[in-house]
Write a structure and sequence with these properties.
This protein is an alpha+beta fold. The chain has a single domain, classed as HIT family, subunit A. The protein has helices at 15-28, 30-39, 54-59, 70-73, 87-91, 136-157, 190-194, 202-213; strands at residues 43-44, 47-48, 74-75, 80-84, 110-115, 163-167, 180-184, 200-201. Strands 3-4-5-7-6-8 form a 6-stranded antiparallel sheet. A two-stranded antiparallel sheet has the order 1-2.
Length: 214
């Protein structure tokens, strides 16, 4: 059985979807999951492996972050970093062809925000708060910080004010580092609709974690 095959679902965009995935992971076994992800090279020494992971490489300083707005590049004393898509992904945000559908940026205005904290349980919303080193109180605070930083960003940048804040829950994520997609909903393109099945709102993630805490 492959690691991804344990998650028998076709989407993760609702509260019930997210609860189902978290419940399934807990039944499968957090330690077993951790060992298999380590064997697969996703984790290394209880951290997110940098090899083959561009976000992890940039967060660790092994690769330069191409995001060119220095006023928003690093936030909260270095705890969070903004990222942008590749220029060609941004350029093709309106492209409906098969080559770019789901690959191009989801909106004309599409940025990403990641915490610098490099612990295996922080690789994705699926595992947030499930380790003794970084529990539910800490990750709920982290989500609150990310939401506020994202909303401050779009306000300063003069975006429309209609903002989507989404995570992609494992196994639907393409990068094995936690990152929040910040989308201007007034300028969405074909890839936004293509990826709706895995656009999990930040609000839902937080609600589920608060319920687990309580």
């Amino acid at each position: 059985m492959s690691l991804i095959s344990i998650f028998r679902t076709q989407k993760c965009r609702s509260e019930s979807d997210f609860i189902g995935l978290r419940t399934h992971l807990k039944k499968y076994g957090i330690n077993k999951f951790h060992k298999e992800m380590t064997k697969a090279g996703i984790f290394e020494d209880n951290k997110i492996a940098t090899k083959g992971n561009p976000f992890a490489e940039m967060l660790s300083g092994q690769r330069e972050n191409p995001y060119n707005d220095q006023n928003h590049g690093v936030l909260n004393n270095g705890k969070y970093v903004f990222f942008q898509n590749r220029p060609e992904n941004d350029k093709n945000w309106q492209n409906p062809t098969e080559e770019w559908l789901g690959r191009a940026s989801m909106s004309q205005r599409h940025k990403m925000l990641s915490p610098v904290y490099n612990h295996w349980s922080n690789f994705n919303v699926l595992t947030l708060g499930l380790s003794t080193e970084f529990g539910l109180n800490a990750v709920i605070d982290e989500l609150n910080d990310m939401e506020q930083l994202a909303l401050d960003y779009v306000k300063r940048k003069g975006w429309s004010g209609q903002t989507g804040l989404y995570f992609h829950c494992f196994p639907f994520n393409s990068i094995m580092t936690l990152h929040l997609h910040i989308i201007d909903l007034n300028t969405v393109g074909p890839s936004y609709n293509k990826l709706q099945y895995k656009n999990l709102p930040l609000d839902i993630v937080r609600q589920v974690l608060i319920k687990e805490k309580n």
